[in-house]
Structure formats: C-alpha cells, structure tokens
Design goal:
Length: 265
C-alpha cells in the first residue's frame, strides 16, 4: 500500500505582513467608487467572493507575464526589467525543500499533501538525510518508454533519477528499483504556493456590518503591495457584472488596460 509521509517542512515562505494589501482598505475603496453614482451596494459576502476571484486572476497572470517577458528578451532587452519585477512578485509564494518520504511500492509523491500547492518548480532525490540531494529530471509519458528501454539511461537512473507527472498533478519517480536500493528514499519538493483566500470579517450592529480585523478567519490579500489598484479594478468589474451595470464594467476595464500598459511600457 502507498505510504507517503511529510517528514519536515523546511521551506521559509512566511509572507511579510508589512507588504500585505489591507482587505478593508480595498473594500472601502471599492464601496466608494461603486456608490459614487449610486450604482449599488456590495455586501461583505459578495465582496469576499469577488476578492478571491480577483486575487487568483492576478496571481495566475504572473506566470503568463513571466513567460511572455522571457520569450521577448532576445528581441527587446527592456523586458529584462519585467522578468525581474514578476519574479519578485512570485518569489513571495516560493516554498523550498519540503521533505517527503516516498513509498517504495509505487514511487508516487502526492503533491496534494501540500494543501497550498499551486505549481511545481523543482524536484530532488536522496536516499537519506546525509546524502547530497540530486535534482531529478522530468520526462513526459512518451519519453518514459524510451528511458525504460535504454540500458544506458536505466543504469544511470540511481544517480540521475527522473519522474513523470500524473493526471491528478502527483509525480512518480522511476525506476522503482531505485527506490529500494538503500532501503528507502526521500524527495525534496519546491513549489509555488497559492495565496490564501482573502476574507473581510465583520460583526453585525443592527443592519450594519462593522469591520472586525481580530476575527480568527480574517485574511488580508496576499499579493505584492503594488497590486492594490488592479485589485480594486477587477473587483469593480465583477461587481458591475453582478449588478448589471455596464458602465461600471467598462470603467473598470479601461482602468485595468491602462495599468497593464503602464507596466509594460
């Protein structure tokens, strides 16, 4: 039976709270802009839903912008600054060297054991804690057949392990013989974690919701502080769609386009 155990969490991914975007600040800004022309009230429940969606949308765009900027570097060295800027934003979510004991029966490492897992960045392998980790090579399922049929590659696999990704986002080490050579082995996983779900917490006073930052489930936005304006814009877009206000959606979309053009200029 599969036995996978998280042995230790050594990655340092504590987010600097000084750089967090205050959720109440964003909410009050959104309310002020939405109500400027009496376009409707956004309830705390609606805001929290919009906030989560907006935060994840911005977070996912980091990887798109990074990929695009890296591909543009040979033709335009000015994009190098964009790469550095986006990498800085992503670095706040990097989790490194999470030690996992791999099952000797199937070689699978379920990345779902990391509840905040978003994207894999590095996989290393070692037989014990005294051994220097060796970075594992990712191969596709198509390449796996070639690896398994190659005597040379198979003989090198204990020193140069490889792995494949499964459909459920887990990974599997190959070959299985490698796992049993010294009675067990460990994987060191590095990944990008997803931001925590933002939550504007409150107490009811009559019909009014009063902000309560001391609630146990309170959560500010976990994005780079420079994203506050874009957060407001995206939440306004969602609010405009919700209250069927096309002008609010248009205004917010124009502001989003303007900000993106400024960042890419």
């Amino acid at each position: 039976n599969q036995t996978v155990e998280v042995v230790a969490l050594r990655g340092d991914y504590n987010y600097n709270k000084k750089n967090m975007i205050g959720i109440d600040d964003v909410y009050q800004t959104v309310l002020a802009l939405a109500n400027k022309e009496q376009r409707g009230y956004i309830t705390p429940q609606e805001f929290n839903l919009f906030a989560e969606h907006a935060q994840m949308d911005i977070f996912r765009q980091y990887f798109y912008f990074l990929d695009r900027a890296r591909k543009s570097i040979p033709n335009n060295t000015g994009y190098a600054d964009t790469v550095e800027m986006v990498e800085e934003k992503i670095s706040m979510f990097e989790v490194t060297d999470q030690v996992v004991t791999i099952s000797q029966t199937d070689g699978i490492v379920p990345l779902s054991s990391f509840q905040d897992f978003y994207r894999l960045t590095m996989v290393a392998f070692r037989h014990d804690q005294d051994q220097k980790p060796v970075q594992a090579t990712e191969v596709s399922m198509k390449e796996l057949t070639q690896y398994n049929n190659s005597t040379l590659i198979h003989s090198m696999s204990s020193k140069y392990p490889y792995y494949t990704r499964l459909l459920n986002a887990d990974i599997k080490f190959h070959p299985l013989e490698m796992l049993n050579e010294h009675g067990g082995c460990e994987a060191l996983i590095s990944y990008v974690k997803r931001p925590k779900r933002p939550n504007w917490t409150y107490l009811m006073s009559g019909e009014n919701a009063l902000y309560n930052s001391t609630a146990a489930d309170h959560q500010d936005f976990e994005l780079h502080h420079s994203e506050k304006e874009l957060l407001v814009v995206k939440i306004l877009q969602l609010a405009g769609i919700n209250i069927k206000d096309g002008s609010l959606v248009q205004l917010a979309t124009q502001e989003e386009v303007k900000k993106i053009q400024q960042e890419n200029s």
